[in-house]
Design a protein that fits this description.
The chain is mostly helical. The chain has one domain (13-135). It is 71% helix and 4% strand. It is built from 5 helices and 2 strands. The chain has helices at 13-34, 38-43, 45-58, 63-87, 106-135; strands at 94-96, 99-100. Strands 1-2 form a two-stranded antiparallel sheet. The radius of gyration is 18 Å and the shape is flat.
Length: 136
C-alpha cells in the first residue's frame, strides 16, 4: 500500500504523444534494420535518439524516470551502432582480441545497465530509507 504522501505518476498528454511517436520511430528503425533497408534504418536514427533524449530531459527531476530513460538512450545508441556496423560491413572486423566491430555496441549497452544497477542498488535504497525516516 502506498504511503499517504505518494503521488501517482501520470504522463501529461503531450509527453504521451511524444512517447508514442518515439515508439513509432524505434519500430521504423528496427524494421529498416531487419529488412536491410539502409536509407530507412539510418535516416530514422536521429529522430529516434532525439526524442529519447527529450523524454529523458523532461523527466530528469524523477530519479527512477531519469535512470530508465537514460538507459533507453544508451540502448538506442547501442542498437543504432550495431545496425550501422552491419550496414557498413565492419560488424565482423576484428577490433581487439576476439572482439569485432559489432561488439563495441556493448559499451553503450553496459553503460545503460550500470545506470540501472546504480539506481536499483544505490539510489532507490537511499530513497526508501529517506521515506522511512520522513514517515517516522
Amino acid at each position: 500500500m502506498p504511503a499517504p504522501n505518494d503521488q501517482p505518476y501520470t504522463i501529461p498528454a503531450p509527453y504521451r504523444r511524444m512517447e508514442n511517436l518515439h515508439i513509432l520511430f524505434w519500430l521504423l528503425k528496427d524494421i529498416g534494420w531487419c529488412m536491410i533497408w539502409k536509407p530507412l534504418g539510418i535516416s530514422i536514427i536521429f529522430p529516434t535518439l532525439t526524442i529519447a533524449v527529450l523524454i529523458t530531459w523532461r523527466t530528469r527531476h524523477m530519479a527512477a524516470e531519469l535512470a530508465h530513460n537514460l538507459a533507453i538512450v544508451f540502448w538506442i545508441s547501442a542498437n543504432s551502432y550495431w545496425m550501422l556496423s552491419e550496414f557498413m560491413g565492419f560488424d565482423t572486423v576484428i577490433v581487439w582480441g576476439s572482439l569485432t566491430g559489432k561488439h563495441l555496441a556493448l559499451l553503450p549497452f553496459l553503460t545503460g545497465l550500470v545506470i540501472l544497477l546504480y539506481y536499483y542498488l544505490v539510489q532507490r535504497p537511499r530513497e526508501n530509507r529517506a521515506e522511512q525516516v520522513a514517515g517516522s
